[in-house]
Amino acid sequence: MSINSALLAGVSGLIANSASLAAISDNIANTNTTAYKRTQINFANVVTSQVVKGRYSAGGVEAVTRNFIANQGLIQSASSATDLAIAGNGFFVVTDKGTDLTTQDPRYFTRSGSFSVDSDGYLVNDSGYYLQGWPSDATGNIFTDPSDLTQMNSINIKDLGAQVLQTSNVIINANLDKRGITGSVGDATYNGATVASLSDYANNPTTGTKPDFTFQMNVIDSGGGTRRLAMAFLKDSSAANAWHAEIYSVPASDVAGAARPGQIAQGIMRFNSDGSFDEAGSTLFGVTAGVGNPPNIALAASSAGAGLRWASALGIEAASIDLDIDRFTQFAATSTVASINPNGAPVGNVVGVEVAEDGKVSAIFDNNLVRLVAQIGLATFANPDGLDAVGGNAYVQSTESGEYSVKQPQLGGAGKIQSSALEASTVDLSAEFTGLITTQRAYSASSKIITTADQMLEELINIKR
Length: 465
Description:
The protein has three domains: 2-68 and 427-462, no CATH class; 75-160 and 355-423, no CATH class; 164-347, Tick-borne Encephalitis virus Glycoprotein, domain 1 (Sandwich). The protein is 15% helix and 34% strand. It has three helices and 32 strands. The strands form nine sheets. Strands 5, 6, 9, 10, 24, 25, 26, 27, 28, 29 and 30 form an eleven-stranded antiparallel beta sheet that branches. Strands 12, 18, 20, 21 and 22 form a five-stranded mixed beta sheet that branches. Strands 13-14-15-17 form a four-stranded antiparallel beta sheet. Helix 1 runs antiparallel to helix 3. With 465 residues, it is of the alpha+beta class. This is Flagellar hook protein FlgE. Residues 200-344 form the Flagellar hook protein FlgE D2 domain.
């Protein structure tokens, strides 16, 4: 009977508009939720077969949920470097636990990048999800796999522990006085391999040769400790533009196996007539003239037991330090050091995190070291709107979304990552309030259908009276 179908159509209208009200309410409630994607209820008519000509049976309406997951929200600046937004396609891969992940543990996808470092060093967002990434190996290499989420680990900043950078290069900018002076023992008796060495003078001025110029510098050893080295120079009276040079440790007891106390290396520095350093003519610290390699000093580990090495009491690893001395000059001016710039850093602890646009996560240490930790991968889908929503503003893969493909940011259609930024909700309050009004009116109209059909049925029943 058509009246009955009208009654049912009115009920379907109430149900459909109730669903619309629920979606609008969800949208309004999540106006300030990071990276929230609005949901919309569309309406589709239901058609019943018309069996008898001249009669019509109402089919009613059904609610169809439409997700706008692929829509990009406005990217807004944030105060924390671990607040991350995706500009473009892709989702962060997250899990609900940080450690002991197995292949059976679920992986989720989200664009909510409000991450922070928890007490255990993991990057966790406001919903409690742990950010996943491809880990960096000991040499700083990262190996990616676009089809296997189990190759990603929960990113942990504190796993690195304290870090040390051993000195491997020293850049020196100095001038040696072309006028020179004669050492107290004299150039004629100088011999870098005997008691008349410059390093001997540092330990026993009565026997060693006094240098014309000496300076000291600090280098970092493998244990993060500071070792002091001295460079000493003596003008060669037999050659206008040549200098004897030595490098030795201070104190001498830091080095074992040396020809003279503390002595690490010796050689000749030569200069051109214009005062510039003559690299090709120098035989400094064991480097053959003209080979083009920087002078290098090398000491074996404390445990070596023989040869030139660090003293056993220090208990440190071998050192190899290049000396960049191209900036040395020889002018008729007082010998002086303009700058000494060694690389290396003492023991340092993590004090910050930085995330690059390509997803590389680095730990910043209080000794100015920066260490690569991992690279964030972004999961892309053929149909992001087909993802199934779960709690915490996250999603799981579905048959409608298609298979995931995890990509490096900025490659293969994946977006870039913006640090100190968050993606805003895609909810437009003005549109939602408008929808709220129309939904209310439609609900009232549907209820009117029911009351009208009820009155008509009552009239039909009253015919018998």
